[in-house]
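Last lecture ended with a question: if I hand you only a sequence, what can you say about the shape of the protein? Today we answer it with a concrete record. The protein is Protein YhfH. Below, first the input exactly as provided, then the predicted structure, then a couple of comments.
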Amino acid sequence: MENVVEFFKNLPAKKCSNCGEKIEEQHECYGSQCEKCDEL
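The predicted structure:
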């Protein structure tokens, strides 16, 4: 079985579901929008 830490390190960067910008937060979080779009 793969190490859990390695699994999370290898997740692809998340992109905002609204504008497509890379989200600079943890990849395993539940948010789907960047801070700019989230404030709109």
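Comments.
1. The radius of gyration is 12 Å.
2. DSSP finds two helices and no strands in the chain.
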